[in-house]
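Notes from hallway chat w/ T.B., transcribed later so I don't forget. T.B. wanted the structure written out for a chain they're using in a teaching module, and asked if we could keep both sequence and structure tokens in one place. Agreed to drop them here.
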Amino acid sequence: MAANGVFCLEGEWNADLRKRESVLPMLDLLERLGELKAIHRDVATTSELEHYLTTWAQRRYEDYPVLYLATHGDKGLLHWSRGQETTLGELADLLNESAAGCYVYLGSCLTLFDTKGAQRFVEKTGVEALMGYRREVDWTEGAALDVILLSWLANHGGRPETLHNQLMARHGDLAKLYKFVTVTKRAVLRAQDYSKPAKSTSTGVS
């Protein structure tokens, strides 16, 4: 079992309750494969969001340092249901310093379009890294990135810059398509800015 757990809060994807879109089967798959352990809760209101973020901050959940927020988004926003939204700044206020040293992954469209706002979020909360997208994301391809990234986050022991570069080296085309970005205290790493290291042409003969 992975050392790190994922704490997932998922918004309503569709106002029609007969629709069944959810990231839960993906988390179940990763948990069954032993890639991570997960806690999943549905969130439809900002008060529910506040409740679960306060719960996540409790010491009993300290082995769940990956906060995964899966919901609709817009520039600087997370939409939990109709009329229920949270700005990136409001999310930072809710978390305050309870997320210090943790990873926050936003599985939402466009939320990190404003990287300056993302930097302010990192500075206020002290998170190890804030990750997400700067454009709209296709459900299926986004789920593929979620599976890869969440597995890596749950088993990653190094710097977020290293993880970002690994993602780009192996899945860079998909990450660039949706303008994936990793924001840390040290840097803003945009998928579009990454280029693979040039292959060495040395023959090793002196």
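Follow-up for T.B.: Strands lie at 5-10, 37-42, 66-70, 72-74, 77-81, 84-87, 103-107, 129-133, 180-183, 188-190. Might be a good example for the class.
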